[in-house]
Specification:
Number of strands: 0
Low-confidence stretches: none
Number of helices: 11
Mean pLDDT: 87
Distance between the termini: 46 Å
CATH class: Mainly Alpha
Strand content: under 5%
Structural class: mainly alpha
Largest sheet: none
C-alpha cells in the first residue's frame, strides 16, 4: 500500500510541477490522436453516407466488413503498416517508419471502421422522408445527404468521439510503427509500457492519470455534444 501511495504522490508532483517530459508526451499523444481522428472523420462520414444511400452490388458485404474491422487488433494494424512502410515495403521510399506520421496512419486505420459503422447506424435511424423532402424541394443528392447528416449530427459526433477514444490509449500499433522514440514518437500509452518495464512506476502513474483525464474529458464531451436541448 505504501508503494502505491508513494507512486501516486510522486506522480502528483510531476503533474503539478508541469514536468516537461510528461506534458510533452501528453501533447504529442493528443496531437497524433486528434490528427488521426480528423482524417478518419473526413474519410469515414462520406463512406458511411455512400453505404447508406448507395444501391450497388456487395453493399451488405461491405457493411459487414466494416463492422468486423471495428475489432481489428492493434498489433495486426501495426504489423501491416510496418510492412508497408519498411525499406522493403512498397512505401519504404517515403521514410515514414518510426515517425509520428506512421502512428497517425496506424491510428487512422483503427478509427475509421468505428466512425463508419457508428455513422451508418446513426444515418439509418433517420426518417427517410427527410431526404425525400429535400430532393422534392430541389436539393441535389449531396445537399440532401447533408440534411440527413445534420439531423443525425449528435450521433455522428458521438461516432467521431468513439473513434478518438479507441485510439487515444492505443499501444500495439504505436509501439510497432513509432518505435517509442523519446521526444519524438513516445505516446502516453507506449511510455507507460516502457516506464513500467523499467520500474519507474511513479512516472508511469503520472502518465496514466493524464490518460484517464483525457478519457474523462472525451466522455464528458460525448455527453455534452449528444445532449439534445
Amino acid at each position: 500500500m505504501n508503494f502505491l501511495l508513494e507512486g501516486l504522490l510522486t506522480a502528483g508532483m510531476l503533474i503539478a510541477t508541469f514536468d516537461p517530459e510528461v506534458y510533452h508526451i501528453a501533447w504529442l499523444t493528443l496531437h497524433i490522436s486528434l490528427g488521426a481522428t480528423v482524417l478518419a472523420a473526413a474519410a469515414g462520414i462520406p463512406m458511411a453516407v455512400l453505404l447508406v444511400e448507395g444501391d450497388f452490388w456487395g453493399k451488405d458485404s461491405l457493411i459487414t466488413l466494416v463492422n468486423t474491422l471495428m475489432a481489428l487488433p492493434t498489433v495486426v494494424v501495426g504489423l501491416s503498416v510496418f510492412l508497408f512502410l519498411s525499406r522493403q515495403g512498397p512505401l519504404g521510399g517515403w521514410e515514414l517508419l518510426f515517425t509520428p506520421t506512421a502512428i497517425v496512419i496506424g491510428q487512422f486505420i483503427l478509427a475509421i471502421p468505428i466512425v463508419v459503422a457508428l455513422t451508418i447506424a446513426a444515418l439509418s435511424g433517420i426518417d427517410p422522408r427527410i431526404r425525400e423532402t429535400a430532393l422534392t424541394l430541389g436539393a441535389s443528392r449531396s445537399r440532401a445527404a447533408l440534411s440527413v447528416i445534420r439531423e443525425a449530427r449528435y450521433a455522428v459526433v458521438a461516432a467521431i468521439i468513439a473513434g478518438f477514444a479507441r485510439i487515444i490509449a492505443e499501444v500495439g500499433s504505436a509501439l510497432i510503427v513509432g518505435g517509442n522514440i523519446r521526444g519524438y514518437t513516445r505516446t502516453l500509452a507506449t511510455a507507460m509500457a516502457l516506464e513500467t518495464g523499467k520500474g519507474e512506476f511513479a512516472f508511469a502513474i503520472a502518465l496514466g492519470l493524464i490518460l484517464i483525464l483525457l478519457s474523462l474529458i472525451t466522455n464528458v464531451s460525448l455527453r455534452v455534444l449528444t445532449h439534445r436541448p
